[in-house]
């Protein structure tokens, strides 16, 4: 059965990796980007991203399969397929915690907060805004462009979607299901970004006790504001701690050296296997500890016997945000709309498997193109914008310095 057999996931991953390899061969721009990026300091994490984002797609493919038969949206009955979504998200949170806490530890008070803020905006929104527009157009198109809510209500819905909430649009039931409701994780990412300077003041810069108290109050206020519509769950936020722990781990050479051994590889894979098979949910103490054990070893630069360093897998890592953000809509089109146009029954196991074969390959191609032509230009635009802000600030700084000298 597809719902319990890990062979379905294995075949889907092989299809994604093969499609990625073919794309790199046929599109020189993609291969050139990967070549220029080279082997980054955390190349194993880059590879891990690719597996995680595609794992969420497989997770939602199984949820969609059961929805077609039961009309109920729920986790797959298999621990493995349930964890392909949950553990992947937990590890994504760990990656965020690791990368940005590592930067704080390295740069200290020299951390460029302006560049950080701009880069996050230009990282999240260039792809998200077109997707959001597609969702709104899809909803109104399915409703024959009839306005069912007031303009004020619609404006509120636009604002909520801009802040990664997913209210029903124009009374269209479960509008968020058009994209598999994936944007809930972005609210947690945004909370971490906003809280990062305050967390740095508490745990790294360590000023006066009053500063610590005020920062903790600020973090609590942020927690309430970001989770205004749907409160942020503390056990989800705990995932970031695994990444922060890894940031301290990699600063100790003897731990990194051990983390790259074959013994560490075996420990990492055992921890991941236990987390994926023994637990239905990722966001509790034991599975999070197992996933954190896996993650600190990967963060040490362990390629898991080469599985994280394949060119095609590293490309999957590059396009992971596109894969994550777009897969829900691709699934919706392929499973909910295409059968009506081509008159076939997606409830048939064979047809559904064939549909997922096409969907897997199509998703990687679409994500690759959106990365090259939307995400990457957006990232570059963010860097250009920071440079423009710096140039605007420079004359003001020179004027202030001249005034002080007088």
Key structural traits:
16 helices; 406 residues; globular; mainly alpha; 0% strand; single chain
Give the structure's gist in a few sentences.
By secondary structure, the chain is mostly helical. 77% of the residues lie in helices and 0% in strands.
Topology (SSEs and partners):
Blueprint: H1 7-26, H2 28-37, H3 43-70, H4 79-107, H5 113-142, H6 151-162, H7 184-205, H8 209-226, H9 234-237, H10 239-249, H11 253-259, H12 262-278, H13 285-299, H14 311-318, H15 320-342, H16 349-405
Helix pairs in contact: 1-2, 1-3, 1-14, 1-16, 3-4, 3-14, 3-15, 4-7, 4-10, 4-12, 4-13, 5-15, 5-16, 7-8, 10-13, 12-13, 15-16
Describe this protein's structure.
The chain is mostly helical. The chain has one domain (7-405). 77% of the residues lie in helices and 0% in strands. It contains 16 helices and no strands. It has helices at 7-26, 28-37, 43-70, 79-107, 113-142, 151-162, 184-205, 209-226, 234-237, 239-249, 253-259, 262-278, 285-299, 311-318, 320-342, 349-405. The N and C termini lie far apart (81 Å). This is Acyltransferase. GO terms for molecular function: acyltransferase activity, transferring groups other than amino-acyl groups. The chain crosses the membrane at residues 6-27, 48-68, 80-101, 122-140, 186-204, 209-226, 232-250, 262-279, 285-307, 319-338, 350-374. It comes from Pseudomonas kribbensis. Keywords: Acyltransferase, Membrane, Transferase, Transmembrane, Transmembrane helix.
């Amino acid at each position: 059965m597809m719902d319990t057999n890990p062979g379905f996931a294995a075949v889907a991953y092989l299809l994604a990796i093969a499609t990625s390899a073919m794309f790199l061969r046929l599109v020189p721009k993609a291969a050139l980007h990967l070549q220029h990026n080279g082997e980054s300091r955390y190349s194993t994490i880059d590879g891990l991203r690719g597996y995680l984002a595609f794992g969420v797609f497989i997770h939602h493919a199984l949820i969609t399969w059961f929805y077609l038969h039961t009309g109920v949206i729920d986790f797959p009955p298999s621990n493995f397929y349930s964890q392909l979504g949950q553990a992947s998200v937990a590890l994504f949170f760990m990656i965020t915690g690791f990368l940005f806490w590592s930067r704080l530890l390295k740069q200290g008070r020299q951390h460029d907060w302006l560049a950080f803020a701009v880069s996050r905006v230009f990282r999240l929104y260039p792809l998200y805004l077109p997707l959001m527009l597609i969702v709104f157009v899809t909803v109104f198109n399915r409703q024959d462009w009839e306005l069912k809510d007031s303009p004020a209500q619609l404006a509120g819905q636009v604002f909520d979607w801009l802040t990664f909430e997913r209210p029903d649009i124009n009374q269209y039931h479960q509008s968020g299901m058009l994209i598999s409701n994936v944007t809930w994780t972005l609210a947690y990412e945004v909370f971490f970004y906003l809280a990062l300077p305050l967390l740095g003041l508490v745990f790294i810069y360590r000023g006066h006790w009053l500063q610590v108290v005020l920062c903790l109050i600020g973090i609590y206020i942020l927690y309430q504001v970001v989770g205004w519509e749907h409160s942020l769950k503390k056990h989800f936020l705990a995932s970031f701690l695994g990444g922060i722990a890894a940031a301290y781990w990699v600063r100790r050479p003897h731990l990194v050296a051990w983390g790259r051994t074959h013994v560490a590889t075996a420990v990492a894979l055992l921890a991941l296997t236990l987390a994926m098979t023994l637990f239905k949910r990722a966001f509790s103490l034991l599975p999070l500890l197992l996933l954190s054990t896996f993650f600190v070893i990967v963060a040490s630069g362990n390629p898991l016997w080469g599985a994280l360093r394949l060119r095609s897998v590293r490309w999957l890592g590059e396009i992971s945000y596109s894969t994550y953000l777009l897969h829900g809509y691709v699934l919706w089109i392929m499973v909910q709309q295409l059968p009506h146009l081509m008159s076939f029954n997606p409830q048939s196991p064979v047809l559904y498997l064939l549909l997922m074969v096409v969907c897997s390959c199509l998703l990687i191609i679409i994500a690759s193109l959106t990365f090259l032509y939307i995400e990457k230009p957006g990232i570059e635009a963010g860097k250009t914008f920071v440079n423009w802000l710096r140039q605007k600030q420079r004359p003001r700084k020179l004027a202030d310095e001249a005034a002080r000298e007088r």
